[in-house]
Amino acid sequence: MKLHYIPLIILSAMFLTGCGSKGGPDLTPEASRKTIKSAPDWFLTPPLKEGFITNSSSATSQDMQMALDKARTSAASTLAGLIESEWNGLVKRAQEETGLAENSQIIDHFSNTQEQVISNRLKDIRVSQREIMEEKTDDGTRIYRAYVLVEFDEGAAQKRLLAQIKADEQLYTAMRATELYDEMEQKVEAYRQRHQE
Fold first, then answer.
1. In what order do the strands lie in the sheet with 52-61?
2. Helical axes 105-119 vs 64-98, angle rounded to 10°
3. DSSP state, residue 124
4. What residue ranges of the chain have pLDDT lower than 70?
5. Residue 18 to residue 3: CA distance in whole angstroms
6. How far is CA 91 from CA 94, 162, 165, in A?
7. What is the per-residue pLDDT for 7?
8. Are the beta carbons of 52 and 154 closer than 8 angstroms?
9. Strand partners, 147
10. Residue 52 phi, psi dihedral angles, 5° rounding
11. pTM, two decimal places
C-alpha cells in the first residue's frame, strides 16, 4: 500500500518545483517610490493643450524598443477609446439639435460620416513626448521602462468631418443651423490658426 504513494509524492514534488521556477524577469514590478519619483512630470500630470486630447502610459520590457512600442500602443488604444466615446455623443447631439428621429436617413448618414472620420483617427494621434529609463528587477535583471505621451489633434479630425458634411448637401442643410455645427466651425478655425503660426 505504501508503495503506491511514492510515485504520487514524486510527481507532486516535480510539479511544485516546476511551478516555483521563473522563466524570466518580472516585467510588472510594483511601482516603488523611486519609480514614481523618477516618472516625468508630463506623465503624472499630462499637459492641457488647446485643441488636443492627451493620454500617457508606461510599459516595461527587457528590450528598449519593445517597451516603447508597448507604452505607445497602450496610450493610443486608451486615447482612441476616449475619442470614440466622445464622438459617439455627437450623433446623439446632432439628433437632438436637428429634431430628427433616431432612425432618420440624415442622422444615419451623419453617424456613418462621423464613424469614417473616427476610423481614421490614428492619423491624428501622435507621440508628443517619450522617455526611457533603465531599471533593475528584484532579481537584478535589467529592464527598460518607457513613458509615452500621445496626443490627438481634435481640430484636424473636425476639419475632415466638416468637409464631409459640406460635401453632402442634404446633411449640410440639416446640420448648418445647429449649435453643434457652429462649434465644429469654431474648432476648425482654431485649428487653422494654430497651423498658421
1. 52-61, 142-153, 125-136
2. 160
3. G
4. 1-32, 34, 101-103, 118-122, 197
5. 24
6. 5, 14, 13
7. 58
8. yes
9. 58, 131
10. -130, 150
11. 0.68
Q: Quick check: helix, strand or coil at residue 31?
A: coil
Which residues pair with residue 58 across a beta bridge? 147
Contacts of 38 (CB under 8 A, 6+ apart): 133
SS3 assignment, position 194? helix
How does DSSP classify residue 21? S
For residues 172 and 165, is the Cβ–Cβ distance under 8 A?
Answer: yes
pLDDT for position 103: 62
The three three-digit cell numbers of residue 71, written as one number: 507604452
At 50, the amino acid letter reads: E
Q: What are the domain boundaries of the chain? A: 29-153
Is residue 35 within 8 Å of residue 145, measured between CB atoms? yes
pLDDT tens by residue, 65-103:
999 999 999 999 898 888 877 777 777 787 777 777 666
User: CB within 8 A of 188, min separation 6: which ones?
Assistant: 155, 158, 159, 162
> Is there a contact between 146 and 132 (Cβ–Cβ < 8 Å)?
yes
- Alpha carbon distance 5, 1 (integer Å): 8
Residues in the chain: 197
The pLDDT tens digits of the residues spanning 39-48 come to: 999 998 888 8
Q: What is the pLDDT of residue 74?
A: 92
Closest of 179, 163, 159 to residue 171, by C-alpha = 163
Q: What pLDDT does residue 184 have? A: 84
Question: What pLDDT, on a 0 to 100 scale, did the predictor assign at position 29?
Answer: 57
